[in-house]
Design a protein that fits this description.
CATH topology: Rossmann fold
Bound molecules: zinc ion
Strand content: 15-25%
Helix content: 25-40%
Number of helices: 11
Amino acid sequence: MIKCPICGFSKYLVVYELDYGIVVQCGKCELVYGANLRLDDYLKCSYNEAYYKKRKTKDNAGYWDYFGIEREDRKKIAYSHLQILKSYGFRKKRILDVGCGGGYFIELAQKDNFEAYGIDASEYAISKAKSHGIKNIMQLDVLEFLTSMNTGLFDAICMFDFIEHVPNPCEIVKCSLNKMKCGGIIMMITPRYDSAYANGLDDEYMHYGRDHILYLTENSLRLMISKATNCKFSICNVKEAVKNTEGINSWAYKYYSEKRDKLLVTIFK
Ligand SMILES: [Zn+2]
């Protein structure tokens, strides 16, 4: 992939070189994105067991131990995401978690009386989640699913640490909004590439990896959403949302205030 996934321009500056491709900055809209990644190859095979266990190098993108030692922390993150969703007034609604991974958010939302469904490209993550008893989750291609599903099924569509993995973000946002109920929201969380944390790390930035295609800033997110829709939206740091949400635990605030500087985007249909 050479063309910018947001504006389609094909000239760029190289920001960072990886063994399997380059991270570049679009010469027109300034989006930073992975180019020359062997996407087909990657998307088909890489969200496997090795991805979710024991990250070793930048090439070997993924988690240290997503279903093991990270389990409790993953649940806390899911809890904070659920509190943010509820802060928009959503209760007992039908929601879809796109890129649901191991289903930690789905599990919590279902316990909180939401009718929650999840989809993910990873066969491994879905089978692990099912083995933990989580219901209403499926291994599916996201855009295929969004395109084929009926309109008005969901009150909210959640995308936590998802959009940075896809080469077609505008299409996914557009399709999600088209199919959602009026009055619904998309709630999206993604790493912030223009954070002080990211700038300080330079080449050691933890999110450089073959699984991430988009390195989004507040500006590039604004541009991407504006390309996809005329709907109103808001963008803030997740730590601001966590701070302003009643009942949130201090762990989540600490998590988002320190190294994990992420952006929260809410799009209102
Ligand atoms: Zn561009």
